[in-house]
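User: Can you model how iron/sulfur cluster sits in this protein?
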Amino acid sequence: MPDNSEIEKFRTARNIVNQDIPFHFLHEEEPDLEGNIQSINTIFLTSKECSFKCLMCDLWKNTIECPTPKGAILKQIDYALNRLPDSNLIKLYNSGNFFDQKSIPLSDYPGIIERVKSYKKVIVENHAKLCGQVCVDFNNQLNGKLEIAMGLETIHPDVLPKLNKQLNLEDFRVAAHFLKSNGIDMRAFILLNPPYLTDEKENIEWTIKTVQFAFDCGVRCCSIIPTRSGNGIMEILQKQGHYIPPTLNALEEVFEKALEFKKGLVFVDSWDIDFLSSCSHCFEERKARLNQMNLSQKRYQPITCSYHQ
Ligand code: SF4
Ligand SMILES: [Zn+2]
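Assistant: Here's the modeled complex, given as structure tokens:
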């Protein structure tokens, strides 16, 4: 089971990033729990690398190695917002943990709060173990409401410990209870085909179980992510037979099943899923169907394709 040093050993080079410019930003739409479509400005902030080293993570590629300098995050938010339209919600994703003060300096909080005051919701990423009073204080100072996106990944008892995430189900439950009782919304990132789960049926089953667990913890939104390789160690695990890429069929199946719970929002990450394509004739249509289901939260008729079964 690879540890931090082995995970780092197989890394490829980082991307060249600029600490005054977010490495990406975009405008997107998502439904809320009432079915209204909300517009979202999503900013992918360039910040210090996450202090955790999860086995499947490739987010370190767009990070810097030293603590984020004071004021850099504010410059990045200004840069993106000057180029984005008005929106209802904002995501400030920093390839790590928003409440890690080496990634987002405490002294930048007032400037961030000022810049997001027109948004009714501010969504950030944070590890369950880093959710504490600082999140509550930040939420209390926002004009809108805070939502924290936490990686739950999988509840499979043998797989979760192998992801090097330093998380167990009790940690997640405790964090979710704390956030919920302080009026902070939550979303969970859930993996389809984490490393060390290589049977398609089992992968579908455990993704669904994980969605169920997240909803039971009070999470209002589950985002299902097909696990991809590309961080170095994942390619090794694939060669060793410890990781198989998910199929588009499996992603469609978990999405349909998770929507049936009707316990909250379910999204599938349809960004960069070309690696799931096994048929060029129907892939785009099937991807469009996933995007429509993300927006409508309803099951659409499956796409039939005469080129494959
Ligand atoms: S906590 Fe999130 S950002 Fe950090 S290494 Fe794990 S998956 Fe990556
Ligand atoms: Zn096809």
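A couple of observations from the model: Residues 279, 281-282, 305, 307-308 surround zinc ion (ligand 2) (CB under 6 Å). The chain is about 30% helix and 15% strand.
User: Helpful, thanks.
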